[in-house]
Amino acid sequence: MKIENTKAQMRKGVLEYCILAILNNGAQYASGIIDSLKSARMIVVEGTLYPLLTRLKNAELLSYRWEESTSGPPRKYYALTEKGEAFLKELDMTWSDLVKAVELTTQSKPTNDE
Amino acid sequence: MNKTVNINLAGIIFHVDEDAYQRLSNYLSAIKQKFAGEEGGDEIISDVEARMAELFQSRMSDSKQVITKIDVDEVISVLGEPEDYEEIDDEPKKEESYSSTSKESGQSETKRRKRIFRNPDDAIVGGVAGGLGAYLNIDPVYIRLIFVLSFFGWGSGFLLYLVLWIIVPEARTTAEKLEMRGEDVNLNNIERSIKDEIDHIKTRLNDLGSNASESAKTGVQQGKRGIDKFIELFVMILKAGLKIIGAIIGFSLIFAAIVFIAALVGAMFGASTLFVSWPDPGLEGINFMQIQDLLFINGNHFWLTAMGIIMVVFSPLIGLIALGARLLFSAPRMNKTVNLVLASLFGIGVVLSFIGAVRLAADFEEKGRYTNDIDVPRSDAPILITGSGDDISDVLEYDQSVYFDGEESRLYSRQVHFDIEKAFGTEARLQVRYFARGSNRWEARKRAEQINYTVTVDSGKIVLPNHIDFPFNEKWRNQEVYMTLFIPMGQSVFLDESALSVIDDIENTTDIWDWDMLNHTWQMNNLGLSCMDCSWTEKEQQDFLQSDKRKSSPDENDASGEIEVVEEWSDDDWDSE
């Protein structure tokens, strides 16, 4: 088992959650999402994102509209759908549960060692 | 100086250095391959292309107009290598396929379309069985077993193997090897692949819609969804129908071609009775290989013609199998070279068979004749004309037949014709004419002389065998015997029933069929050959001749009403035919 794999798996799991969370603050162009994720060091390359966006869109959690760009081709602006918002709320709860659970287990660990 | 290539990326034109172009095109095709056939794959690719266009454009200025390899490398480093791309098809989908289909765990991570390839990693001869095994998800051993067993089915398996070897490409790249394994070909997957295709169309329509009406209201979209559903259903039915029809046609094509090949091969090696009887029923007891000696001038002539015919017949059959395979397995198109080779083989075949046919026709060019006159002693009683007891009708079914007697190396034929005519003098005479064909008259005559046909002429009796025979090495060159019995006025003959197969359209005053002339006595008089013991009067005979030239048995002729009689006769004619 490689540590890189585990890290990637962990990131992958929360990536969708992060995207939905970013879009919850308002519609965003793909590179905007990327910038946020990059600055948070969630992803390294953009390629990771496009398939994920398409998948979320196909799952009807996201919708997009085209917007003309002054420099380059038209851009897709992604926004959360109602379904996406509901989904995000559920993820929020799951996330806090998870964090609590992780905290509990990691904090109990030293006591076990003692 | 560098050569540049113009590319269109998301609707924007870029000038790209050649090496940069190579890198870019490799990158994009790797991405395409990764998402090929996946849900939303097209969309991902166009998203990536659009992003690339944007990144490139930000690097362009008036002073920098060409994209270099460095630009491409940097853009790729922003986007990430193909393996960094998130796989669309992950856990949830997998679970679905676990529950719905078999437990193909290791290979179901990608939803590739399955195609048939030869497997170079699992090959004993050409990798055909290995590839088929991978395609059908069976152990190749069973397929090899079937092939080996079918080698004994007149070599059809061998031929099929060769054909597959030619038309099925080898899996060379890793992608092709993956494609070779692909998914199981079952109804579930066919359904899914159809759904995918519909999704493609749907997303395209959606994109089109959202593109056109940016401020489209949800109500409109609701309506659009209804239309989508309708189109979806329609396309689904259409696609499924086409796929099934294609598969059926493909299967029939392959099946027909294989049966035909097997039948041909079977006929060639003498198994004609098992598969198909040789088209010409006249060649009883002769298999394809013996025709070589029978018909063709020499070995070279035979092989030239045979090769020609084989090429003419087999090239289209291989083409048919390839077409069938494409419809059935969605196997790739045959490459151009193979097509070209098949086409030229066909062309060469046409030329060769034409040469062979012309050469053969030349050997039939001239007719040779050899005549033998036999005196027939005068007899007061009717001369009895009878067939010989030595009949070969059990082996010769048709008049035109040639029969090969392997032990005696002789050919038998029933080309014997007997006629009766009026003699000029007072002596009766039987003229026997032997005919054969050859490339020149001399050769044809020599061949005619080789015909063995023995007529026995006694006083008051002529015995006519119903067949001729000639040496096998004389070949079949339409050998025939024509006989004419010239009888003087007043001489009568009796035609025995056994002469049926020999008599040939003997002219007589009543103008009746040959078989009705049998078992009657006929006398030569002023009018011609007249029946002596037929039970009809002169008057009836005249009526009969006038009644629309009808021909019938005299025995039946005791009716009173003319019209009725005609009807009865016509019925009898049908019966006797």
Description:
The complex is a heterodimer of chains A (114) and B (577). With 114 residues, chain A is of the alpha+beta class. Helix content of chain A is 64%, strand content 12%. Chain A has 4 helices and 3 strands. In chain A, a hairpin with a 7-residue loop joins β2 (62-67) and β3 (75-80). Chain A is globular. The two termini of chain A are 28 Å apart. The mean pLDDT of chain A is 81. Chain B is of the alpha/beta class. Helix content of chain B is 48%, strand content 15%. Chain B is built from 17 helices and 16 strands. In chain B, strands 10-11-5-14-15-16 form a 6-stranded mixed sheet, with no helix packed on it. The model of chain B is unreliable at 88-112, 271-284 and 548-577 (pLDDT under 50).
Helix and strand topology:
The complex is a heterodimer of chains A (about 110) and B (about 575).
Chain A: H1 3-23, E1 28-29, H2 30-39, H3 49-58, E2 62-67, E3 75-80, H4 82-113
Antiparallel strand pairs in A: 1-3, 2-3
Chain B: E1 4-9, E2 12-17, H1 18-35, H2 41-59, E3 66-67, H3 69-79, H4 91-100, H5 128-136, H6 140-150, H7 156-167, H8 174-181, H9 187-212, H10 218-268, H11 288-295, H12 299-329, H13 336-363, E4 366-376, E5 383-387, E6 402-405, E7 410-413, E8 416-422, E9 428-438, H14 441-449, E10 456-458, E11 461-464, E12 468-471, E13 480-487, E14 492-495, H15 514-517, E15 521-525, E16 528-531, H16 538-546, H17 562-576
Helix pairs in contact in B: 1-2, 1-3, 2-3, 5-6, 6-7, 9-10, 10-12, 12-13
Summarize this structure briefly.
The complex is a heterodimer of chains A (114) and B (577). Helices cover 64% and strands 12% of the residues of chain A.
List keywords for this structure.
heterodimer; A: 114 residues; alpha+beta; globular; B: 577 residues; alpha/beta; 6-stranded mixed sheet; 16 strands; elongated; disordered C terminus
